Amino acid sequence: MKMHALSGGRLRMRKSVYLPTVEKTETIELPVICYLIRHEQGNILFDTGCHPSVAENAEDRWGSMAKVMVPINAPQDNLIAQLDLVGLKPHDIDLVVNSHFHSDHCGCNTFFKKATVICHARELEAAQAQEAEKMGFLPVDWKHEMPVETIDGPKDLFNDGRIVLIPVPGHTPGMTGARIELSRSGAFFLASDAVALQDNLERDLNPRNTWNTELSSQSMKEIRKMQAEGVRVLFGHDDKQYQSLRKGQEHYD
């Protein structure tokens, strides 16, 4: 089994969204990270990043959210182009796991017509609720015709312990991470926005855009337990960590 870290775009936001104690005018650049896991039983994507169109006209797709979450990547910096680098096309993807349904994590879902989408039942419920768009759930990005499979607890995708989905609610109601067990590279936990930055985990800091801070802190506590056991936690938007990762054609196995 192999795991590739792929770029799904890049954003600029106010740093105080993630680290509430910093000056409000300070900004931060955030990588948008997707993971391709090539398992013998299929090709799995964990998150799909931003839709390619937002690189040139984010407001057209995202509306007012584009003023808060500003894409700064080049037009060719998106998941579809990244898959080309590893010799895959959208129709080669069997499963799309969405950690949650914010637009920078499900923006390219629409391209994977032959895939089944997997998400937490509470995430789907939240995205379908009245005024869900005010919570950042935009139907243009998450609502498509592909089949959707929901989970309500841990899910071992292939019943072999190598890709296990683990609910880590707090950032959103159905926030889900993935524990990946690789033969040579060891264990990883794809935390997505359950832990956006290393500082959030180390200082138990909940970002301002957290849906439920109590649940978020509990999820981070469980993630720290995994970290103490030797699992490498991959944060959702930490640029320093992202720069250190093997990316694109390079992979972990």
CATH topology: Metallo-beta-lactamase, Chain A
Encode the helix/strand succession as letters.
EEEHEHEHEHHEEEEEHHEH
How many discrete structural domains? 1
Main sheet record:
7 strands, mixed
| Class from secondary-structure proportions | alpha/beta
- The number of helices is 8
Protein topology:
Elements: E1 2-14, E2 27-39, E3 42-46, H1 54-62, E4 70-71, H2 79-85, E5 95-97, H3 103-106, E6 116-120, H4 121-128, H5 139-142, E7 148-151, E8 155-156, E9 163-167, E10 176-182, E11 186-192, H6 198-203, H7 213-228, E12 232-235, H8 239-244
Parallel strand pairs: 3-5, 5-6, 6-7, 11-12
Antiparallel strand pairs: 1-2, 1-4, 2-3, 8-9, 9-10, 10-11
Keywords:
253 residues; alpha/beta; Metallo-beta-lactamase, Chain A; 8 helices; 12 strands
Written description of the protein model:
This protein is of the alpha/beta class and 253 residues long. It has one domain (2-244): Metallo-beta-lactamase, Chain A (4-Layer Sandwich). The chain is 24% helix and 28% strand. It is built from 8 helices and 12 strands. It has helices at 54-62, 79-85, 103-106, 121-128, 139-142, 198-203, 213-228, 239-244, and strands spanning 2-14, 27-39, 42-46, 70-71, 95-97, 116-120, 148-151, 155-156, 163-167, 176-182, 186-192, 232-235. A 7-stranded mixed β-sheet has the order 4-1-2-3-5-6-7. Strands 8-9-10-11-12 form a 5-stranded mixed β-sheet, with helices on one face. A hairpin with a 2-residue loop joins strand 2 (27-39) and strand 3. The chain is globular and about 45 Å long. The termini are close together. The mean pLDDT is 97.
